[in-house]
Amino acid sequence: MIKTAITSRPALLAKPRLGLFRRHISVPSQLSIDPEVADAIASKKPVLALESTILTHGIPYPHNLTLANDLNKIIRKEGVVPATIALIDGRPVVGASDAELEVLCTPPPEGKKFIKVSRRDIAYSVAHGVTGGTTIAGTMILAHAAGIRVFATGGLGGVHRGVEHTLDISADLEELGRTPVAVVSAGAKAILDLAKTFEYLETKGVHVSTYGPKGTNIPAFYSRDSGIPSPFNFTSPEDAAAVIHANNLLQLESGMLFCIPPPHEHAIPSEEIDEAINEAVIAANEARVSGKDITPFLLDRILTLTDGRSLQSNVGFVKNNILVGARIASALSKIGSSEASPNKNVQPAPVSPSVFETTRPTAVVSAPADALVIGAVAVDLTCDLTHATLEAPKSYMHTSNPGIIHRTPGGVGFNVGLAATYASSAYVAKGEDISIRMVSAVGPDARDLHASLGLQDDLEGPNPDMSGVEVVNTARTAQYVAMHDLKGDLIFACADMALVEGLPVAHITGQYERCLAEERVPSWVTVDANLDPEPFTAALAGARKIIGANTLVEPTSVIKACTLLDLGPEVLGVFPSQHAVDVMTPNEFELAALFSHAKKKGLFDDRADWWQVISSLGLNADFRDRVARLAQAAGVYEELVDQGLVQQAVHLSPFVPCLLVKLGRKGVVSVVLSSAEAVVAADSSQASKFSFTWQGSQLDGLSGPVALTVTYHAPETVSPADVVSVTGAGDSFAGVVLTELVRRSKAASSASSSSSSSSLSAGQSILADGPQLNQIVRRAQRAAVLTIQNRAAVSPAIRTLA
Of 3, 45, 116, 189, which one is the catalytic site residue? Predict the structure, then answer.
């Protein structure tokens, strides 16, 4: 690992300088910061500090080295930079390299020993070239000097038993009272007088909060419950990050302690561990052990008395603490702030934080999400050509064209989320509060979209909850460029979605886990097909397995629509319970591409589960004749029959049981696979042109026969003269479909009404209900019309839809 040395005093750090080599300068006050750590601090990426006494004095070799590497992997998996802090040959190191970790973990040569470095020991260690592990107090000091705000460890030092005779109080408590760093731990070490320890912290004005619902007590290191009430509780990393953020804004010169109860599988019952602790304390008194030696002595004796279980427990909950600490650091990095760095001499690199951070400081403590939208947030450049003599598309090519260029926030995912939020705002007056949360990533350049992608400067009205958007300071925000002809129709477009395509799996699953910690979980997840197969798989599989949500996919484009079919049979299962996608909203060209790709991959030949569904439907000439007659009467024979739209949709329906196929100015066709018991027929007044249901035979997984419903929804009328731009019309359609599905799912849940068929989820039952589906499609069509009449990618007028 390449390092750089920073000329500093421990509490006064100069701006980090990145160099090719660590500079060995003999001045005693050098603070050596790993370049990756320095860059992360300067550019406001999440960093998590780690202490090193657990390596030098807590866990024996080689288990300590294994633990160090495991902790770094856990932290990096969360997209956070680890920074182990220690003293190496008298140099305060922030971000120990692999070689330095090995030095700290390997027993020193005979005749030498590592020391425990607390506040009082730092100057001595630097002056005498000492190597040692930093305690919580020592780590806090050096972390604060470097500008790191979150630090995770095993357990806090505190007030020792018999303090009335020994006056033995850990410097950790004093440091928490005067150094503004957040410490994440499993409470204080169980060998201490816990009641006096937390009373002391209260005297010092230290914020103490415990992970869990209100009323969760402070943990006791090895045990989940010390019996001591926690002054505060937090239920998500975002909650903790909001407190740290406020502490920094107010410039409170005190630390914060966030207590994490050990996971059940690593906890030791209090009565068992208390017995071992009492025996260890008696042994220490008899041996007259005190001072720095008391803690290692007690922990070693407890290890023996518990036959090694205390060490296993310690390692287990340390890993859990580090995981939570990394997520808190990540959440904190997403909260923008205009406050000065904790160390006013540390100046950030000239990369401003994302616009989400500067104008939406409350986003992290947003309301629980009713739906997630996972996909692209992008910068849209829309080129509207104005040359009145151009008529044929080919005449635009190979030359410059006069026009007007509009720069707006966009991206399929964002547009869908914005349309869903606009649509939901129409129901606020009725007491229906629907929260739509975006899950995406942007680069620091996103700040150029005025105040934020919260968009007060660009868009009117409410905006999606952007707290699930990750800021990647090393990448550029996705971009989309579209050129429209004089009629507002798309000529061509170019999408640069690299950042979103590779959206980290850990970020997606982390957002799902965040939802589990909130008071309700989303009933629907929408994914746009910009994602690469790995994050696409994580998004779809996680929606089902982690939060139990229904899914909607917006295909995005002809090319990207087919990504769904490449995810493999473990993801791409079939109806009624193994399919990954409940609803898809392709246009006729995307549907044709999906059909062609599935056929090429042999999905209609080699999949026995697919054939079982198709066979159960028992489609025959009567079905085809009925489609032909109705399509002829409705004026869509060419699309539905000649072009094979219904045939294509039927073939794909086992993989996606509800296909809402957009025909542009010709309307929408819905093809829904469901249970015959769940179908609610739509009459002619409810389903614009025609709707009919074909009943098949019994299908495994259903309590009754399978059914297929085909409905043609006539288009909303719009004058060609009113068309401004078609960009965003499909996204608006999908966003309103999402809102309608969410609000109806919420209504079904609050009324405790389930599907008429236990085989289907509440979301699937809504889709099988003809009148409801028609209402959903009609409202979505109206939204699409409003958007094509507006320059914006999503029309704010969607808020007015009744």
Answer: 189
Most confident residue range from 293-297, 604-608, 717-721, 729-733: 729-733
The model's pLDDT over 202-218, given as tens digits with 9 standing for 90+, comes to 999 999 999 988 889 99
13: part of which helix (H) or strand (E)?
strand 12-13
| 279 carries an active-site annotation | no
What CA–CA distance (Å, rounded) separates 728 from 787? Answer: 7
- pLDDT tens-digit map of 84-110: 999 999 999 999 999 999 999 999 888
Reported as type and span, the H/E element at residue 780 is helix 770-788
Active site residue 51: yes
Secondary structure of residue 181 in the 3-state scheme = coil
Q: Which residues pair with 220 in a beta bridge?
A: 223
pTM (two decimals): 0.56
CA distance linking residue 723 with residue 628, whole number of Å: 32
Task: Show the domains of the chain with their CATH numbers.
Answer: 1-147 (3.40.1790.10), 149-266+317-335 (3.40.1790.10), 355-800 (3.40.1190.20)
Contact 550, 537 (CB under 8 A): no
Among 3, 44, 51, 100, the one annotated catalytic:
51
> Terminal CA-to-CA distance of the chain, rounded, Å?
60
Burial annotation 572-599 (CB, 10 A radius, 16+ → b, else e): bbbbbebbbbbbbbbbbebbbbbbebbe
Beta bridge partners of residue 257, listed in sequence order: 183, 208
Please say if the pLDDT value at position 445 is more than 80: no
Give me 331's structure tokens.
């959440």
> What stretch of H or E contains 381?
strand 378-385
In angstroms, rounded to a whole number, what is the distance separating the alpha carbons of residues 123 and 8?
A: 13
Establish whether the linkage from the previous residue to 62 is cis, with ω within 30° of 0.
Answer: yes
Distance CA 80, CA 36 (A): 11
The helix or strand, by DSSP H or E, that contains position 238, with its residue range, turns out to be helix 237-249
- 352 vs 654: CA distance, rounded Å: 48
